[in-house]
Amino acid sequence: MSLDVSPPDPPALEPAFDPDEYEDADVMGEDYRREELDEYLHDGAWERAFGEWAEHTDLGETEWAIVEDLHLVREFDFFWDDFADRVGYHAPGLPEDWRERDLHPKLDSWARVSGINAALTELGGVVSDVLKAEYIEWESEFEAPDDLPDF
Fold this sequence. Notes:
By secondary structure, the chain is mostly helical. The protein has four helices and two strands.
């Protein structure tokens, strides 16, 4: 299956970043390289990754319209994770209380909500992979301590 829609604008990564916002912030380095990643996203990485993702996603046009209506794309976040030598990301998602909050008239089942959340996570992964493989030229600066035990 594929999704035949135009790529939305990439999310804007804010240079001011509170690392305490994410659970895994304690293992990430201090240089998140957000400005560089934002530049790469706007220079074609987002469009390239979105196209690759759209060719293989199970998300339908109705679900994509919900994503657009709720402006979920702008909630993506990408950052350099020096510890893991990767582009980390946090994908937006629909909350568990979507029904109580009456978020969107076409949100009518857990299957649809789960499908949207899974597809957005997959999109984040594709964007992360494209950034790492095709745009990032720097090396990880993290060095493991010398006193790690042998396993």
